[in-house]
Amino acid sequence: MISADILAVQDLRQWYPVSRGLFGRARFNVKAVDGVSFTMRKGEVLGLVGESGSGKTTIGRTILRLHAPTAGSINFRGRDITTLSRRQMRPIRRDMQLIFQDPFASLNPRMTVERIVGTALDIHAPGLPSDERRAQVMAALQMVGLSAVHANRYPHEFSGGQRQRIGIARALILRPEFLVADEPVSALDVSIQAQIVNLLDELKERLGLTILFIAHDLAVVAHICDRIAVMYLGKLMELAPTDELFASPLHPYTEALFSAAPDPDPTVRRQRIILTGDIPSPSAPPSGCVFRTRCRYAIGACAEAEPAFREIRPGHFKACIRDDLALQATG
To answer: Which terminus of the chain has fewer Cβ atoms in its 10 Å neighbourhood, N or C?
Structure first.
């Protein structure tokens, strides 16, 4: 059940200085995340979608404090964790875990599954008796659909889907409240993706998890997410409940993403919107609306000032000055 806010992100910025010249002084910043704000309620799954390079993964890692944010605030369970030191963050990390995108590269090939899954216990519960440690590892494996016979094997002995289950078991063994799932199915075969998504959905219900689900596949986020946030060039373009976003998108970028998504119904004929050009460099974003250089609805005023991220309907936000548009939904 979705209840009170567990996470509040306010005006989050993650800029990376780039140095040039003889003395290595910073000449400009790569604005990977630039002024992002949102909240998440306990038990919610929030989807974060957008093209590659839009800043989705950077947001997830910054929220987990794997990167120190340039500006803004991150409030987790009522506590501001924005400037906490590594030592202060350590007990909080039990409740904030990450599922990686690549289920092979994120697993140590020289370690058995039991060692991989149990590493978090070694860090956060070093005095745990060995039999209790093993019991918790076996319980975590069973929770994700594996068994004790897999414990002494190595990552290369498993399929991609099984390796991702190992990664999920590692993330859940400490019973966290909050997960960042960083494109957890993008490296898997389509036939396996549904199994992993259904597993995460089941675990969310069983364990009461709150999940920031990063993806680029709209069909995946539609299945598991309560709300969806659409990102472009380090900024939020739109945020809304999943059903409402699919039925009535309000931002031209969201419309373009929907038009590119294949529809399983062969009778549906959706107009394909081709975005011209590439995403601008985050080190030199366009003035005004960052999407205006690729937007077919752009007008002169779009270049003059950055549009406010405002609530148009209850719970439905967008960053666009054009309120006169009737945009194409998913069909």
So the answer is: N
